[in-house]
Design a protein that fits this description.
By secondary structure, the chain is of the alpha+beta class. Helices cover 26% and strands 20% of the residues. The protein has a 4-stranded mixed sheet with strand order 1-2-4-3. Strand 3 (77-82) and strand 4 (85-90) form a beta hairpin.
Amino acid sequence: MKGAESFDLIRLLKLLAERRIRYLLIGRWAVAQHGAPVVTADYDLWVHPNDRRRLFRLLETVFDAELPDPTRWNRPLVTAYVGPDKIDCFSPGKIVNDEGEEL
């Protein structure tokens, strides 16, 4: 099994910041950063559509993650596995804020 080591979320977040990969930690782990208990085992990230490939390459090279074939990386949801840990990466095609501006 690839990525047999335990996944280190804090290490990933630091690497994302260093590489200026735009992301949001969403889901239960985001709530946990504010003191709530974590009751799910997966990680959920929103990733800017332009930064997806960089994130997936980072997961592959640094964390030895299992990812789908690169031809499937353009889907709105891509799941990576690092050992037993599941990382769901969400990237809708476009996002529009309340002012109607495309982000």
